[in-house]
Amino acid sequence: MFFKDIAGQQPVKEHLIRMVKEGRVSHAQLFAGGEGVGSLGLAVAFARYLNCLQPGETDGCGSCSSCVKISKLAHPDIHFVFPVIKEGSSPTVSDDKINEWRSFFLENHYFSAGQWFEYISGGKKAGMIYADESPVILRKLSLKNFEGRYKIMIIWLPERMNDTGANKLLKILEEPPQNTVFLLVSENPGGLLATILSRTQQISIPPIDTDSLTIALSSRFNVSEAEARVASRLARGNYVQAVVNLDMSKDNSGFFDLFTALMRSTYSRKIFEIVKWVDAAAPLSRDKMKSFFDYATGMLRESYMYNFRQPELVYLTPPEEEFVKKFAAFINENNIEKMVGELQVAYAHIEQNGNARIVLFDMAIKLVTLFKS
Ligand SMILES: [Zn+2]
After folding, report:
1. What pLDDT does 265 receive?
2. Are residues 319 and 181 in the same domain?
3. Contact 52, 6 (CB under 8 A)
4. Per residue in 64-119, pLDDT tens?
5. Do the Cβ atoms of 137 and 169 come closer than 8 Å?
6. Do 164 and 218 fall into the same domain?
7. CB atoms inside a 10 Å sphere around CB 337
8. How many whole angstroms separate alpha carbon 80 and alpha carbon 237?
């Protein structure tokens, strides 16, 4: 993880680099930002920069012995503490899952707490930083620095530490060992002890700006810039959410064609076309059909709103927007809620195992009458 691997956050990166260059690195820092904004990646890139033997103007060099080790998250002076899940009654600490941590982080860079717990335990339980961790932290801090300039302790989600552990951490922060830097990476600083907060220098990590998130997604995931932009806008600066949005739009591919075919056939009242549409839609699985009704509901609402909305607030892909631009004229306050109501009725009938062909045909005929009004 380098600074350059992190989407956006230019002012934060510059701030961190400036601290190193000016030699005023505080011994306890709190990286505070919401899910998916890149706080953990920034902490790792900062740790790299702090211990790099030939740091460049804007990033670690990548080739010195320190950088090579941090690239594998295996630097002897850079330690990680993160929530884990207790198995049985034996002490449970981060080191038990360090191999999983390394591969998960190196593969994903951005992830939520839920995704991490899913990875280590199938997501049945939420993890914690247990009191068992405190003696391990103390032992690691008492070791002499192996090779790094700084001994760095990165604690991901310190708000998941129980009170005993948090109080022990506070003691350490009150009397920090020399050349040690704590990087607390929190999504919920309000969940930390006030006494811990007051011991740390806080660095706020804002949501990722849409342009940077768009570029990051389209270069990582082989999707068009237009698709990446829609996913980014809807994610509001959260990389993890943007990836979920991209997956969802892949799952929904085909819905757009199905929706436009339904609207065209019902608007023009061509029974033969409506029957063809039912033939195409009826074989979908029930779950898929329910997702289609959700999609169609969203498209109808967007079409209605299109009549009033500022163009930059439209959350549609370019082909969807192209369609909606013309279609919006047929959707108005007299039919929008009734149409959405018909989709909801169809959804409920499919959920109750109604005959798909009958439900779909019935719904389409209702739409015909609603277009007429
Ligand atoms: Zn280096």
Report:
1. 95
2. no
3. no
4. 999 999 999 999 999 999 999 988 777 789 999 999 999 999 999 999 999 999 99
5. yes
6. no
7. 13
8. 26
CATH (domain of 296): 1.20.272
Number of domains in the chain: 3
Q: Residues 33-54, buried b or exposed e (16+ Cβ, 10 A)? A: bbbbbbbbbbbbbbbbbbbbee
Q: State the residue range of the domain holding 216.
A: 207-250
Report the b/e string of 268-304 with b at 16+ CB within 10 A: eeeeebbeebbeebeebeeeebbbbbebbbbbbebbb
H or E segment and range at residue 293? helix 286-306
pLDDT score, position 313: 61
Q: Are residues 159 and 75 in the same domain?
A: yes
Tell me how far the alpha carbon of residue 367 lies from the centroid of ligand 1, in angstroms. Answer: 64
Distance 116 CA to ligand 1 centre (A): 28
Which protein residues have their CB within 5 A of the ion that is ligand 1?
A: 52, 60-61, 64, 67
Q: Which two tokens stand for residue 255?
A: 């819905």
264 and 216 in a common domain: no
Phi, psi of 57 (to 5 degrees): -65, -35
Query: Both 194 and 236 in a single domain?
Result: no
| Interaxial angle between packed helices 225-235 and 210-220, expressed in degrees from 0 to 180 and rounded to the nearest 10 | 130
Q: Are residue 136 and residue 181 in the same domain, yes or no?
A: yes
Q: Do residues 14 and 132 both lie within one domain?
A: yes
Q: What distance in Å separates the CA atoms of residue 351 and residue 289, rounded to the nearest whole number?
A: 9
**Last residue of a domain, which of 250, 282, 314?**
250
Are 37 and 121 part of one and the same domain?
yes
pTM of the model: 0.76
**Residues in the chain with pLDDT values less than 70:** 123, 148, 310-314, 373
Ligand 1 centre to CA of 2 (Å) is 10
